Please model this.
Amino acid sequence: MKKETKIFVVYVPKGGAIKTTTVMALSQAISILKPKASILVVDADFQKNTTVTLVGKIEDNDYSTYGVITRKVDINDSIISTDNPQIDLLPASISLAGVDIELQNEIGKDFRLKEAFTKIKKDYDYIIVDTSVLMSTMVVNALTSATDLIVPARPDAFTLDGLDMLPESLNEIKQYTNPNLQLTGILIGYMNDTILARDMVTRIEEKAQEIGTKVFKSKIRTGVVVPEAQALQQSLFEYARHSKPAENYLEFAKELIGE
Model:
């Protein structure tokens, strides 16, 4: 793995917050902005939504994030190609659902993914990790390996509850496993022009200041193309390259990587 590799983890302790959509759209957007960049998408969620969208339904086996974190297989044997030649995938397995119990007595269990990343033979410029909602062993591994945390958020009151839960967890990660983790910013999705949405954005911006981060200027607009793309198991850029949400994700990627 390159020393300068950026490892973006997309996580928020709340469901329905465009995590998977953001992981896939961000990887596609970076490939457009940087045609020579090499990108690894890591599906660390036992629900496997990212895996299914990128490569379709594949048989569950140890050649996955599950096998890597349990040290049953080498990460280099588990990475697969996608239709985009710039993007590779470390797929998920439903067996991830039992990792907390399987590794409960293992010493150093929180560093397994970070250690695996150091063994990657192919150099990646960006690694983007999709996570589950719960602060599980797999999520702790993802945050321990990360350079940057991106928090996706909807402009609603439930998001504020999720943001309230973040500081304690992140403080423990910084104290015990990853002192260099950066809470890079909050990405607002499902954005529309209602008074309620604008008010919630203001409240989220206030919360961001409280927890020492920012809200990205780019906002992902609400659009029917997002659930349509998910239903067809396609990335947003494959399904509707010139839609407003896709354009928003491209703007977000520019903001994130400085293009």
Observations:
- The chain has a mean pLDDT of 91.
- The first strand starts at residue 6 and ends at 10.
